[in-house]
Amino acid sequence: MSELTSEQLDELFGSDVDSISEEEGTKSQLDLPTVNVISEKFTAIPGLRLVRQGLSHAVQSTLLEFIIAANYFQNETTNQAMHFGDLPDSFAKVGTWAKSCTDLLNDIDRHPLFNQAIINLYRSGEGIRSHVDLQKFDDGILIISLLSSCVMIMTPASEELKNASSYQNDEIADNVGISIHLRPGDVLALTGPARWDWAHGIPAREIDVIHGEQIQRGSRVSITLRKLKCSAVGAIELSQRP
């Protein structure tokens, strides 16, 4: 796999991404840590676990190199890609690392661990509506955050959201819920109540205020790994996030 260059990042995501150093960016292998990592817990939201900056810059660079090579976002109207069935090797390895070397997925025991992935591109100022992942996906969802920082807001989910058969057009209220600051390389897990009883979303705004500090958002990529309950034929879908 070729080195991820600043020109490639600019071509795909624009020039406003958080930087990856040249020295770290030249390391293309997926060199995941082998030591056990303990996640941060959130008392108010059981089942929400976060490994802060668990992925090194080199690993982040490798994941981005794959996304660039896959040409997911060459069309300006495309901001979402989905994999079904067998996942790309780099995605699957991060899932395996999260299960074997962290406590993110301690309550999850299944094979395959994940069989569906969503890759979302958020350009500066974009967000995603508050939602609960549909019931057709099993417990245990892993979110990998790349490039720019952002704030994810968790709110108690309504019964309508919990049991929805499709995603609703709910808006995110900036002053309601629990804010989770996601940085590049963070890996977040939703299990149990955090997965089923709480909605999560990202407000559409260009500046997040974190501990009184204003942080400008750049372009961001997230990789979400899930387990589809029913069997699915291996496939890739490219689309525009609603």
UniProtKB/TrEMBL annotation:
InterPro entries: AlkB-like, AlkB-like_sf, ALKBH7-like, Oxoglu/Fe-dep_dioxygenase_dom. It comes from the Eukaryota. Pfam families: 2OG-FeII_Oxy_2. GO terms for cellular component: mitochondrial matrix. Residues 113-229 form the Fe2OG dioxygenase domain. Signal peptide: none annotated. One of its GO terms (biological process) is DNA damage response. This is Fe2OG dioxygenase domain-containing protein.
